[in-house]
């Protein structure tokens, strides 16, 4: 879910313009083209220019970040990067009346009156009440209350989307609800003591954000309830964790079994407690096995492999189980690996995998109960691709590219090039020690009239351009093979 809908109209326009700068290698924008694209007058653009510079000055750190017009009609950004763009986005979020209304509605409405909250946040009463009145329709319009997983009740959905909001907007910049920092630190330490591995920084940040939403919803008297569909059998370790957490929270609230079950299921879904625990809980979720079997069926039905006998089914099934477990339970809409433009690279490099993955995602998109957004579909595409790349050996692929390396200098140089080709090892390359009928590309230091296959001649150590040209040739070879390998598929 893209939470920039919470920003004011003017801040959204500023964010749009700043985002366009980061998408240009030279960070230069044509002012006239920008005005036409955004339907703005020159006066309006200049006002936004002043606003953006003031905002960039507010979030800049050691290196100044600003916009300038070095040439008439051309705007250029200096010192702007993705991190500072995230910081300015957070600046816009925190000054949004709609966001202030959201925090009151979901975290403080049972603790404070509206008047008390307005006073504490130094807001205009009229602005706050207007934002509060418009909040529910806006959230419904953007699907905030719509379940994004198969195992989500109303409170589960609200918490999940709140978590996505804070994790997306604050991640790597600052921590939401900073007064909670000492308590959150103690809770994370308590949880860490019962985990099999040390938390990585990204895991710790994700857990910390989750805990903040979890705590504030409980403190505002919004319990998860007993109708949640994920139920975990207590273990000695989980009971010890619950007892320690209850001691930490004793002054604030009573930790119920339902609330701990909710926390425990999050830890399992995110893999914090290890794969075995995830497997045990997934066994009680029919949809996980159903989706995994469906994907394996696509691999077989589309005849992607030469044989299925040698596939490490367990490794692939374990990866798919992890993907589908998170997808059907605590699915956190991703902020990375969501660029549809990057799909083309993988579809060309792994065309056989692309066929199976794309077919499977199309089936998921047709299901009304899954509500697959474009970002979710793209992220699933990458997840499936990585699972296949890590699990299926090149020897089993039907879209192999055979390369024969044969240098007149002898085995030393030949072996050097073969070792260098390891960088292409995920392109389903098979190295031939001799020229055969299966060979697709012949690499040598001299051209040979006896070779009918495509020849690559390197009389000097290959340059980056040489490697780039070879990569293009490998992709072309794959494309040319597709119609014969998959005659029933549209391979254009």
TrEMBL record:
It comes from the Bacteria. This is Mga helix-turn-helix domain-containing protein.
């Amino acid at each position: 879910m893209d939470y920039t809908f919470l920003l004011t109209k003017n801040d959204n326009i500023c964010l749009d313009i700043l985002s366009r700068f980061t998408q240009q290698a030279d960070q230069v924008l044509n002012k006239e083209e920008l005005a036409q694209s955004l339907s703005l007058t020159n006066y309006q653009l200049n006002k936004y220019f002043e606003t953006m510079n003031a905002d960039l000055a507010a979030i800049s750190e050691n290196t100044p970040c600003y916009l300038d017009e070095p040439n008439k009609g051309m705007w250029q950004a200096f010192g702007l990067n993705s991190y500072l763009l995230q910081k300015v986005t957070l600046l816009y979020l925190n000054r949004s009346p709609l966001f202030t209304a959201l925090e009151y509605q979901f975290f403080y409405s049972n603790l404070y009156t509206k008047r008390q909250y307005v006073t504490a946040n130094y807001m205009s009463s009229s602005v706050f009440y207007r934002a509060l009145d418009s909040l529910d329709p806006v959230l419904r319009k953007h699907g905030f209350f719509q379940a994004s997983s198969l195992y989500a009740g109303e409170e589960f959905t609200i918490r999940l989307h709140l978590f996505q909001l804070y994790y997306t907007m604050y991640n790597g910049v600052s921590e939401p609800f900073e007064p909670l920092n000492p308590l959150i630190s103690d809770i994370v330490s308590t949880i860490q003591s019962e985990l099999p591995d040390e938390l990585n920084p990204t895991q710790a940040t994700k857990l910390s954000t989750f805990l903040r939403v979890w705590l504030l919803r409980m403190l505002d008297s919004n319990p998860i309830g007993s109708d949640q569909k994920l139920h975990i059998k207590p273990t000695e370790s989980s009971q010890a964790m619950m007892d320690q957490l209850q001691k930490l929270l004793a002054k604030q609230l009573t930790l119920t079994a339902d609330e701990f079950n909710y926390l425990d299921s999050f830890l399992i879904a995110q893999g914090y407690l290890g794969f075995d625990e995830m497997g045990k809980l997934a066994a009680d979720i029919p949809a996980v096995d159903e989706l995994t079997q469906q994907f394996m069926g696509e691999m077989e039905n589309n005849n992607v492999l030469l044989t299925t006998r040698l596939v490490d089914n367990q490794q692939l099934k374990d990866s798919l189980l992890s993907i589908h477990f998170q997808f059907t339970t605590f699915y956190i809409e991703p902020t990375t690996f969501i660029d549809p433009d990057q799909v083309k690279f993988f579809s060309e490099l792994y065309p056989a995998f692309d066929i199976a993955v794309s077919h499977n995602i199309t089936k998921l998109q047709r299901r009304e109960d899954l509500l697959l957004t474009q970002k979710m579909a793209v992220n699933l595409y990458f997840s499936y691709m990585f699972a296949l790349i890590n699990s299926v050996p090149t020897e089993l692929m039907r879209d192999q590219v055979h390369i024969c390396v044969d240098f007149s200098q002898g085995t030393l140089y030949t072996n050097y090039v073969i070792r260098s080709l390891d960088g292409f090892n995920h392109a389903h390359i098979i190295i031939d020690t001799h020229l055969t009928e299966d060979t697709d590309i012949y690499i040598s230091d001299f051209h040979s009239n006896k070779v009918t296959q495509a020849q690559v001649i390197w009389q000097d150590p290959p340059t980056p351009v040489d490697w780039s040209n070879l990569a293009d040739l490998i992709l072309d070879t794959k494309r040319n093979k597709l119609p014969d390998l998959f005659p029933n598929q549209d391979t254009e």
